[in-house]
Amino acid sequence: MSGGFPLRAYEWHWQTVARTLAILLVLAVMSGCSLFPHQAPALIVDLSTPQPASKPEVAEPEEVPASAPVVTQPLVEPKVPHPAPKRRVFVPKKPPPPPPVEEKAPSTPPPLTTRIMQHEQIRGLLDSEIQRPDGKVIGRAVDMYADATGKPKIMIVNLSGFLGVGDRKVTFPWTAFRFNPATKKAPITFALPTSGSNGASNAAKVKAQDASARLGSVNDIPPTLAQLIDSTVLQKNGARMGRVVDMLIDAQAQPQALVIDLSDSLAADKRQIAANWPDLHVVSRNKVMQLQLDFTDAQIKAAPTYSPDQPIKIVSPVVPPPEPATSPEPAPAAASGPGSCAKAGAAGIARPSKQ
Length: 355
Hints:
Blueprint: H1 5-33, E1 112-117, E2 122-124, E3 129-131, E4 137-146, E5 152-159, E6 168-173, E7 177-179, E8 188-190, H2 203-212, E9 216-217, E10 226-227, E11 232-234, E12 240-250, E13 255-261, E14 272-276, E15 281-285, E16 288-292, H3 297-302, E17 312-317, H4 338-346
Parallel strand pairs: 3-8, 11-16, 14-17
Antiparallel strand pairs: 1-17, 2-12, 3-4, 4-5, 4-10, 5-6, 6-9, 7-8, 11-12, 12-13, 13-14, 15-16
């Protein structure tokens, strides 16, 4: 027994120490949990049943002890905001009503005279075919020249070559052609001179006609003649009226009208009119022959439009008559006196005898 006692005592000692340490550890844990803040458990609300409306909490006024001194604050006058300054609004005055418009009387149309001709009576010269008496076409008319009196003198003919090769422009006298406006093909015929029945008596006349019917060069046209096609027509005041694009010729080879394109005028009127040929003036300005018509701007605007598909309306301006000349002042009466008597006697005037 003496050999086992010390061992039991040793075991008992260590068991006691272990229990003590366990107790201390439990106490330490329990004391540590008290250090954490205590959280209230969350309120569980049943949403399936209606809940009564919560009343707002009314804070009760704190009771002030009677012994506490009453502190009075100084009265502060409230600040009254000053009104903003009013802006002056300028209202524009209404303009006075416009005066009543006086109805103008309709203006009288500008003075014009118009004559109507049919396309069977006159025919355009430009690009008209020219044939010989046997019916063979030899070329086309492309231009004409007139003298200072407006009489046609020369026709420019474009002689046809073979398939357009060899075409050339030549001049012929105006009297060498005959016109037939009603013919659709080749309205101009080149009239060759023929001998008369008297034979020898007409030989000189035929020779003269043959010489006049010979072709000439366009470079030999005298400067005293005025060209018609593509020439500018001026008004009396010098303003541009338009450009000649064609001439209308009747069966007697007499020009009746000029077809003028107004698109080249200062008014830029994009149309054509037929102006009366006798109203044409050929004037010389700076040694150049120019064309002139006495149309005013109002007459040009009122002129009817030329159309190749409608009857031709040839217009002519009506020139107002010149103002009458003022009558001359009467001559002063002869002065009386010896000098006047002597002049009267020298002039052969008998003096009355004294009674």
